[in-house]
Amino acid sequence: MAHATPPEHKIISRHRFRRPEIRLWLPVLMVGLVLLCGWVLAPRFSLIDVLALLFLTYVAISAVVTVVEITVLQDGLIIHRLILPQRFVPWSAVDRAVVFAYAEGETGVHIEIASIGLYEGLSPLNRLPGPVYGQGLRQTIVITPETVENYHVLLAALEQNCTVVRCEAG
Q1: What is the pLDDT of residues 149-165, one digit of tens each?
Q2: Beta bridge partners of 77
């Protein structure tokens, strides 16, 4: 079971946002986008408009709940969420990490996204993005080398404590 406050254990590594301003602008941007689209569509909502607005709301919630900072402890992870309180998740609640990588040799482009699937510990909202990031209905968070510091150190900690599946294309 997850705890709202972390246990007193040794911190192995911290993985903060490379650009801390994301804490403010991502939630504001997502809420603003949903409100703007709702305002543009009002007062005439067709079925397509409602479905599009619901899909946009799904994307906005998925973006806000999956982007986190992480502190690695001996016993698990502390997940620092954007709009919800931080949570401690023991290693036993971490199911797997799925790393999607795309590399194009001709241009030197390399894109990588890692999703971490959890059995429990966060929020039912974290189940929404799971299918998109290869986690099914598991609670899901997402990290990339561009968003968090020491990304590869975090992946190494995950590899020591849970299954890491790599899906490479390109």
Answers
A1: 999 999 999 999 998 98
A2: 72, 89
